[in-house]
Write a structure and sequence with these properties.
This protein is mainly α. The chain is 62% helix and 3% strand. The protein contains 9 helices and 2 strands. The chain has helices at residues 3-25, 31-58, 66-72, 75-89, 99-107, 113-126, 133-136, 154-169, 182-193; strands at 194-196, 203-205. A two-stranded antiparallel sheet has the order 1-2. A hairpin with a 6-residue loop joins strand 1 (194-196) and strand 2. The longest helix has 28 residues, at 31-58. 25% of the residues are buried.
């Protein structure tokens, strides 16, 4: 299989998933709104996986997982580890806030949208006072997880976002090794799906 074939396959898979997610969300909100949720969740997965890979690299000779280390280490060790991750990436996520951890909670019906809110908030909070602070300030501001358009209560909003996260998790995305710019391609595809009458009105699905 050529590089071009792999690229087309990755794009097709990504676009199909984005289309299905858009159709799941578009009944309750405007196009420019749910675009922000989809892109925000993809970016959250991307940032989360970078933390997992960096943590695994730091712990590769200790024969311990990131989760187990975080449970067993004392506060000083955890602080030093956190600072090392921030030095490398500019931000940090605790194991409980990783995308993969929340996916496991979704599978056993223990996920709630408030945990997702804490996760994305912790990304920007971890960068406070560092050189990367400006890069993460307001990063997820367009993804309002308290919006009634996602559902009337926490349970219903959790169900909607859990379904969206499951769809994103189903994608085989090796961000560092992909033949496409996953984030850029997703943004361009979502923009192309909708014809917006103006910046504040609903778009319609293009055919």
């Amino acid at each position: 299989m050529t590089t071009s074939d792999i690229q087309k396959m990755q794009q097709a898979e990504l676009h199909a998933t984005l289309w299905n997610m858009a159709n799941d969300l578009r009944g309750s909100m405007e196009a420019y709104e749910f675009k922000s949720y989809i892109l925000g969740l993809i970016f959250y997965r991307y940032l989360s996986e970078k933390v997992e890979k960096q943590a695994a690299e730091f712990l590769q000779y200790d024969e311990i997982s990131f989760e187990d280390f975080w449970q067993e280490a004392d506060e000083e060790a955890k602080q030093n580890f956190k600072e090392a991750i921030i030095e490398a990436l500019g931000y940090f996520l605790e194991p409980q806030y990783l995308f993969s951890t929340l996916i496991e909670k979704i599978k056993v019906n223990e996920f709630d949208i408030e945990t997702l809110q804490k996760a994305i908030t912790s990304i920007s909070e971890s960068s406070l006072g560092t050189e990367s602070q400006q890069d993460f300030e307001g990063l997820f501001d367009d993804m309002d997880l308290t919006s009634s358009k996602l559902g009337k209560d926490v349970k219903s909003r959790s169900k909607v976002m859990g379904k969206a996260m499951t769809s994103i998790n189903s994608l085989y995305l090796e961000f560092d090794n992909a033949e496409i710019d996953v984030l850029g391609d997703a943004y361009e595809y979502l923009i192309g799906m909708f014809e917006q009458t103006d910046g504040n009105k609903a778009g319609v699905i293009s055919t």
